[in-house]
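Our preliminary data section would be incomplete without showing what the modeling component actually yields. Below, a chain of 125 amino acids is followed by its predicted structure, encoded as tokens that our downstream tools consume directly.
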Amino acid sequence: MSTVAGPVHEVCSSLDLSRVPAPAFVVDLSRLRKNLKHLAAVKAAAGCRILLAQKGFSMWATYPLIRQYLDGTCSSGPWEAMLAREKFGKEIHVGQGFNSAKASSPAPATPPPPPTPQRSGERSL
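Predicted structure:
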């Protein structure tokens, strides 16, 4: 297996790919820290909280650095929530259908509302 990199730019220009085991994900921690500092500035200016969307970035090896800047995580289900609890350790926001009292299993799904009756001549898409 060989190591392949994306476009070469200043971030990885000094990276010797022959020293990177394959397969691997390589993270530039200084670039990540720089981006997190931008987010911290947004938080301060806006007076808001910022969460890490685990669906977008769940590289939990970087959570110790990220948790220094962000307020918590947003999880889409029980497994992501458990990962957040174990590795991130701050606020955990979970999508609908998850029972936070039982972190080992999702809550029963709420049935969808009944369909709206159609009037004569209407079609549903």
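The longest strand covers residues 72-75. The radius of gyration is 21 Å. Preliminary results of this kind motivate Aim 1 of the renewal.
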